[in-house]
Structure formats: structure tokens, C-alpha cells
Amino acid sequence: MYIDVHCHLTGDEYAEVGGVGAVITRAQAAGVSRIICSGFDLNSSKQAAALADEYESVYFCAGFHPSELDKYKDGDLDGLRKLCLHEKCVAVGEIGLDYHYENNPPKETQKTLFVQQLQIAHELQLPVVLHSRDAAQDTIELLETHAHLLTSGGLMHCYSYSPEMADRFLKLGLCFSFGGTSTFKNAKKVQESVRQIPATRILSETDCPYLSPEPFRGCFPNEPARVVAVVKKLAELKTATEEELKTQILENAKALFSKLH
Ligand code: NI
């Protein structure tokens, strides 16, 4: 059984390829029978919950993505907290810091909401799914300062930083998931991180609809069935068989996401 621990199925991209139902059927056929659909604001988190209600293989996480905070309204955190109580809500996410674009929300706003959501995860004993882009230093410093809130662990999703930085995230007990970018020819730094991180801390994702892995690079929308191609590449990098790594990843996912069955 394969697992896609991070994807977005709530957008309208999938209408073009038969709808979300067809996407989930194709995933099942490829052996991908656990899918964690990630929210990025209150509305998408609610939509992810609805998908989890509808499809047995779908679980979800609820959270406010740092790039989406201009949509944030008072009371949204209460809405997220409620969603987190859903039996198939496996984590608070995706949350974190994103400094990629100049017009992203102010750093201080991002940090405040990040910490508030870490607090919710701590209170509800849920792990966190972390998004960090062009913000390695602030992310690690904030997490080290608030390590007491990481009581149920966490996942650095689509990990894109160096192996040296990975060491510091490892010391906080975090796991790492890798998607399409890890299969790209020029992704030397990410591939070095995969080699160095212990197999017991590695998970697989697609982050679809974007970033289709090789040999589907450039195909849009990406979908969970393609996590098989990601695991193939990760197994090669870890000098393990696909079977061994697939089994290990499922164990890792169940250890991190206690509500996942
Ligand atoms: Ni994402």
C-alpha cells in the first residue's frame, strides 16, 4: 500500500480529468490507498473534511497556509479547531512560513499565526504539517523556541533545504516528506537530504496538483497515483527496494498520524 501524505484535491483542476472521484479511483488502482488532503485556509480545510467524509481512503489536515493569510478573518482559528476534532483530521496543516514572494503576508503576521496554530496542535495532541519556503532560518529558530509545542511530532512537507538544516529538524523529532521535486535531475541538494535522513523519518507525497514527478514532469494536474513514481526514486536514493521503502513509509505515516488507519 502506498500513501500520499500531502496533496490538494479541493481545487477545480480535476474537473478536466474526470473529477476527484476518478482521481481517487486511479490512485486505488495504482495501490495508493491512503491520501491526506491538506487544507490551506478555513474553506479548503472544510472541503478537505467533506472529501474525507465521502471517500474512505481520504484523510485530511486543517490549517492556514502562510501565503493565504490575507484571507484570514477573526474566528477562523476557532473554525479550524473544530475541524481538528474530526475523526479523520490527522494533523494541523499546512502551516509555517513562506518568504518566497515579496508581496507575501508580513513576516510578523506569518509568525504569529504559525505559533497560534502550533498551540492548537499541542492542545489537541495532533502533529503538525509544516510548509517552509525560503524561510529556513526563521522556521528552525521559531520551532526550536517553541519545541514544547511539538508534543505530537510534525512533518516538514516537500522538504527543500540542505542536509545540514535537516539535522536540526531531525533533532526536533520531525519527519520529512518528499514529492516530485526529489525526482528531478537538477535536485541535487534535495536528493542529498534524502540520502542522509534516516528511512524511519521519510514519507512520500505529491503536493498535487503541482509538481508532477518524473517521468510525468510538466503534466498538469498532478495526482496521488503518481506518488508511486516518487517512492521509486526515493528507494533508489536510499538503496532500498521499492517494497521495503513502501512498507517503511506506511509504518512511518501510522506512527506520526495516530488517527490514520
Ligand atoms: Ni501543499
What's the SSE blueprint?
Elements: E1 2-7, H1 19-29, E2 32-38, H2 42-54, E3 58-62, H3 76-84, E4 89-98, H4 107-124, E5 128-133, H5 136-145, E6 154-156, H6 163-171, E7 175-178, H7 188-196, E8 202-204, H8 227-237, H9 242-256
Parallel strand pairs: 1-2, 2-3, 3-4, 4-5, 5-6, 6-7, 7-8
Helix pairs in contact: 2-3, 8-9
Widest β-sheet, arrangement of strands = 1-2-3-4-5-6-7-8
The unreliable regions are none
CATH homologous superfamily label: Metal-dependent hydrolases
Residue share in helix: 40-55%
Top CATH class: Alpha Beta
Put simply, the count of helices is 9
Reading the helices and strands in chain order gives: EHEHEHEHEHEHEHEHH
Mean pLDDT: 97
Kindly describe this structure.
The model has no long low-confidence stretch (mean pLDDT 97). This protein has helices at residues 19-29, 42-54, 76-84, 107-124, 136-145, 163-171, 188-196, 227-237, 242-256, and strands spanning 2-7, 32-38, 58-62, 89-98, 128-133, 154-156, 175-178, 202-204. The chain has one domain: TIM Barrel. Helix 2 runs parallel beside helix 3 and helix 8 (227-237) packs across helix 9 (242-256). It contains nine helices and eight strands. The protein has an eight-stranded parallel β-sheet with strand order 1-2-3-4-5-6-7-8. The chain is of the alpha/beta class and 261 residues long. Helix content is 40%, strand content 17%. Strand 1, helix 1 (19-29) and strand 2 (32-38) form a beta-alpha-beta unit. Bound molecules: nickel (II) ion. Nickel (II) ion binds next to loops.
